[in-house]
Amino acid sequence: MKFNTRDIDMLHGSLWDKIILFALPLALTGVMQQLLNSADVFTLGKFVGKNAMAAVGNNISMVGLIVSLMMGLSLGANVVIAQNIGAKRIDRAHAAVNTVFVLAMAAGFFFCIIAEFLVAPIFYFLEVPSSVVDMAEIYLRIFLLSLPAISLYNFQAAIFRSKGDTRTPLIALAIASVVNIFLNLLFVLQFDFGIAGVAAATVIANFVSAIILFFELLKAEGVIKLNLNALIVDKEELFEIVRIGLPAGIQGMVFSLSNLLIQAAINSLGADAMAASAAAFTIEINVFCFVNGFGQAATTFVGQNYGAGNLRRCKRAMWVSMGLSAIFMQTLCFFILFFAEEVLYLFNSDPEVIRLGVIRLWYIVLPELINVLMESISGALRGYGISLTPAVITLICVCGTRVIWVFTAFRNIPTYSTLMAVYPISWFITTIFLIAAYSYHMKRLKPARA
Questions:
Q1: 201-240, pLDDT tens digit by residue?
Q2: Three-class SS of residue 7?
Q3: Which residues does 428 contact at the CB level (< 8 Å), separation at least 6?
């Protein structure tokens, strides 16, 4: 098996340095993905107005719903290929790569078509104010055209990550981010396309990142090389990808579904609350990118070592990932909370928007350590191929807690602070059950498939 210099040997040697080399580019990739949306929010907030900014904020949860499912499925691809590499099943790894590419194309076009039909019902459910509904619909319908590219990028990135290469996806997304920022300014300032121009710029940038990775896979050597003349769907590998990836996708969707409910509650508080949430979200999600990066490191390192039969190293990988995630996350949180007002001012100068944005950041960024536990444990379980358990726990605990909170606590005290409190409360409850589930599965762990 031939590896290039970007590959990481996950099966031998020290862990902490390799996990950092894996997780940091992955975290920065997440930051770059968010930068695509942040650039939209920034451009609209500064050059169009807070109603346009609020319109994009309304779309964040719906976009997250679809993207979370595709990212979850791609995580299944990551685990399957990683386990095959760890077990030195090279033919099976090749079959999984081909299957992943076909699945990516099919999923992207399928979700694009379905989502276009769901735009009107979703906006009706969210009770989007009339002042922003037209702009919100324009942005979303154009943005949804990029779903095939988003799907292809995430699945192709999962292929690279399965063997330790997190830098190639980062480079592709960095180029796409530069393209997005340039086109945002060009379409808004030069051509005055407004919100439609911002959406179009994002679509183009997403296709740029997907195309770059496509050509990199064609040029790759070894186990991940893509051969267009040998594209087939291997039923066994497809089953494993869906078995692991679909629950992971559902887990991500649960967060997005609960966020749709919270977004509807935010909408009831007015345009200032909507704009504040859109701005604060673009900041807080970048902290989560680092938490998620180390969580995916746990998934991939556990996956390869589980395939190789080294259970002791699997457990060490999870704990090291968790510790490093906590260190990086706490450092970021300190700077974000200390400079919260200054950072929010970059998005919108309205004092009320900034005030509400600061409230959201304190409620969500400060207790982010709970998310470290959630992501590390969930990531490790997925690395073992156990994906349904964390998905079910998340469905019940996160979604259930948030639904109950919105219809009880928030209904009785309908303030922005009351609504934001549901985030750390739902995380804490979910983490308790995930710890119990991890302990249960470790005592009954079965060997990796032959």
A1: 989 999 999 999 999 999 887 788 888 877 788 888 888 8
A2: coil
A3: 367, 370
Task: Characterize 12-32 residue by residue with b for buried, 16 or more Cβ atoms within 10 angstroms of its Cβ, and e for exposed.
Answer: eeebeebbbbbbbbbbbbbbb
Q: What per-residue string of b and e applies to 171-206 under the rule 16 or more CB within 10 Å gives b? A: bbbbebbebbbebbbebbeeeebbbebbbbbbbbbb
Cβ atoms of 203 and 142 within 8 Å: the answer is yes
Helix (H, G, I), strand (E, B) or coil at 372: helix
Please give the Cα distance from 437 to 414 (Å, whole number). Answer: 35
Q: Assess contact for 437 and 393: CB atoms under 8 A.
A: yes
User: In whole angstroms, how far apart are CA 205 and each of 93, 156, 319, 421?
Assistant: 30, 16, 36, 35
Helix (H/G/I), strand (E/B), else coil: 88: coil
* Inter-residue contact 292 to 73 (CB < 8 Å): no
Q: Are 166 and 26 contacting, i.e. CB atoms less than 8 angstroms apart? A: yes
Report d(CA 155, CA 151) in Å as an integer. 6
CB 58 within 8 A of CB 126: yes
Q: Please answer whether residues 278 and 348 qualify as being in contact, where contact means their C-beta atoms are separated by less than 8 angstroms.
A: no
The domain of 72 spans 16-443
Q: Are 164 and 10 in contact (CB under 8 A)?
A: yes
Residue 224's SS3 state is helix
- In terms of Cα–Cα distance, which of 158, 129, 281, 137 is closest to 217? 158
What tokens appear for 213 in the block? 């990775």
Contact 361, 297 (CB under 8 A): no
Question: Does residue 449 form part of some domain?
Answer: no
Terminal Cα distance for the chain, rounded? 19
Q: What is the pLDDT of residues 305-363, one digit of tens each?
A: 998 889 999 999 999 999 999 999 889 888 899 998 998 888 778 899 999 999 999 99
Q: How many residues does the chain have?
A: 450
Question: Cα(22)–Cα(16) distance, rounded to whole angstroms?
Answer: 10
Prediction pTM value: 0.76
Q: Is the pLDDT of residue 187 over 50?
A: yes
Residue 320 in tokens: 């090291």
The number of folded domains in the chain is 1
Q: Residue 11 falls within a domain, yes or no?
A: no
Is 10 inside any structural domain?
Answer: no
Reference 254, options 401, 377, 117; nearest CA is 401
Q: Is residue 8 part of a domain?
A: no
**Count of Cβ atoms closer than 10 Å to residue 439 Cβ:** 10
